[in-house]
Design brief:
10 strands; 6-stranded antiparallel β-sheet; 2 domains; homodimer; Chorismate lyase; DNA-binding
DNA sequence: CAATCAAGCTTGTATATACAACTCTTGACC
DNA sequence: GGTCAAGAGTTGTATATACAAGCTTGATTG
């Protein structure tokens, strides 16, 4: 056994986490105040405070002196994400963004994809292919495989209006991610879409996102090296 | 003016930070206990505790119930860093690592480098060029420009024994970093060093590291796309 | 009606206290 | 000399309290 008696403040943290993860408390919802939690859990204000404090540091909550504590916007969490939502990135540069949806369907996964998605070869997965444009120039091809068990309504979305990343974030807001970045030469089809020659180096990012239930999706992002670079800012 | 009266715990935090940044307290040094800080700053234990707690969360300190509080190893911080020390990465794969030092000198910086290092064109900067090998195969070329005002003894190091990144981390442990990742075609000289053809795509990472005094260094890391990929694991 | 002010709520800081849990040293005992 | 136990010192958890500072609301007042 690991812990006989979990600390009181962790119980409160868990309670709040569950409310948020389960969707009972929405973004910007007001969270019980320190005094309310004090009564509800029969603890001192300092203990209730500690729970709220730590969740705030983790980015789940936002506190404002005088007005209260609120569920954070998941958007703000994505700023922690290394590789950001491309639509935001382009907008921040003051450029025009638009997307073209090339495919959106259910497919049989091959062996490689199956492994990466924790499925079996031949299982069905949802697949989307979206081309992202910056000022009318194709800048990134996003091919994405999604675990159908975890994101049921993926195929009914319109990814010219919302990016797959944004949609998935709204469905499973609390996730981990692994990234692999490679420099590759793209195949002929991809080169044609991106309007580059077959000898042009491309940046390819494979991003796997996880929720507590397993792998949510695998994104393969391919960008021409001469049109796109990956930026990041880390403080440590 | 921003703040009339800084909180007491921030004063203690600053005090500890300065001791660490200035090198007066080494890695693994014992930090004053909560009770000692309580006396030294004439505050309550809870206030002293808060300072230690927050610095622990920031990764500067390590606490151990029963034994005390210690300055963290800066090594452990680099695990937060996206793009890791290549020597560690190779060792973790169970492969053999070695480095070849190609250059180590003072150079005049051109305009591009000057801007990135916050120097003026024609100023002197320290320059190092190191080739990293995994199992005798060249895997990464590291070209680095260092601000001579901030790292005085850079030219006297032996970068076959310690990587530039490790050395700089020990000199200016508390930094920020910005990264840019591109897919490029390397020039002939670089291709020869990396033993690849001139049409092979390469991953190029430009990493700028900052201390509180300014830009410390600019690293240009070039790796063949078919031999190297960038991995990362983010939790958010 | 509009502006102002005050009350009441919220979070932020700070203190004093108590006990629990853990580590390490020291000293007594075998 | 080795083993065990006690104790001192450390961090971890929890409570009760007080006041400061910021926001919201509603009543008062011009």
């Amino acid at each position: 056994m690991t812990k006989l008696k979990p600390a009181k403040y962790t119980i409160i943290k868990q309670y709040i986490c569950e409310k948020i993860e389960s969707g009972q408390w929405f973004e910007h919802s007001k969270v019980p105040s320190e005094n309310e939690l004090t009564e509800q859990f029969s603890v001192s204000r300092m203990t209730a405070r500690r729970a709220l404090q730590e969740l705030t540091e983790q980015g789940l909550l936002v506190r404002s002196q005088g007005s209260g504590t609120f569920v954070a916007t998941f958007k703000s969490q994505s700023s922690l994400l290394e590789i950001r939502n491309i639509a935001d990135e382009i907008h921040e540069r003051g450029h025009q963004y638009h997307a073209q949806q090339l495919a959106l369907q259910s497919v049989d996964v091959n062996e490689e994809i199956a492994i990466l998605l924790s499925l079996k070869t031949g299982d069905k997965a949802y697949f989307s292919s979206v081309l992202h444009f910056e000022n009318e120039v194709a800048i990134q091809l996003e091919q994405r495989f999604v675990n159908p068990k975890l994101v049921a309504h993926y195929l009914t979305q319109d990814f010219t209006k919302i990016t797959p990343h944004e949609y998935l974030s709204s469905e499973a807001p609390l996730t981990e991610a692994t990234h692999e970045v490679e420099a590759i030469l793209a195949n002929a089809d991809v080169c044609k879409l991106l309007n580059i020659t077959e000898s042009a180096p491309c940046l390819q990012v494979k991003r796997r996102t996880w929720s507590s239930q397993g792998v949510v999706s695998l994104a393969i992002l391919t960008s021409p090296g001469n049109k796109y670079r990956l930026g990041s800012h880390l403080v440590f």
